[in-house]
Each structure stands twice: as structure tokens, then as C-alpha cells.
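Page 42, continued from yesterday. The earlier attempt failed because a stray header line got pasted into the input along with the sequence. Redoing it now with the clean sequence only.
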Amino acid sequence: MAYNEALAARVRDELSGYAPFEERKMFGGLALMVNTHMACGILGDDLMVRVGKLGHQAAIADGAREMDFTGRPMRGLVMVDAPLLTDEAVLARWVQRAAEFALSDPPKSAKR
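This time it went through. C-alpha cells are written below.
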């Protein structure tokens, strides 16, 4: 599955205001890593946001949907549908939420 390059550019712009990040191709899309943790990603035209298990229900209440990439809901990861992301303020809030969650855990140890 290809990912929306224009959305990726917008997410990069938003994320650069919070923390250094790396990009990795994952899940047939693009994952953005902050503090060695996946913060968010783009799958098709939608934004995947890592919110953690404790933030999952609040994210659903805020308009996201469960991520069920494998056919089963993945607690702690949500999807924000493309139509919601046309509003820059909405995109900024979801990217901030993702970055803050990724920064809340210490960095992973380097693999040997």
C-alpha cells in the first residue's frame, strides 16, 4: 500500500516542531520514530497514531478509530481518517499527541 506523500510532508513539518525523528517504511506505509519509538505513521491517506493503552479510549472519543490492521484491534494504536486531517489544527493535535507519547518512554537501548 502506498502512502500519501503530501500528508507525509505535512506530518514531517508538524513533527519537526516537537522532536528529532527518523522515518522507516513499515506496514506498507511510513512510520515516524521519535525517541526510538514509533510515534505515528501514514497508511494510505490516513494517519496512524500511537497513543498507548491508557490513551486509547480517549483517542477514540476524540474521533479516531481502532486500528485493526491485522484483523484484530490493536490497543494503543488508532487511525485518524483522511477527511479529519484536512484541518491543520486537527493534524497538529494528533501529531503532538503522538510525539508526546513517544517522548514519555525512555529511549530503547541500541541493538548490538
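Notes: DSSP finds three helices and six strands in the chain.
Reminder to self: strip header lines before submitting.
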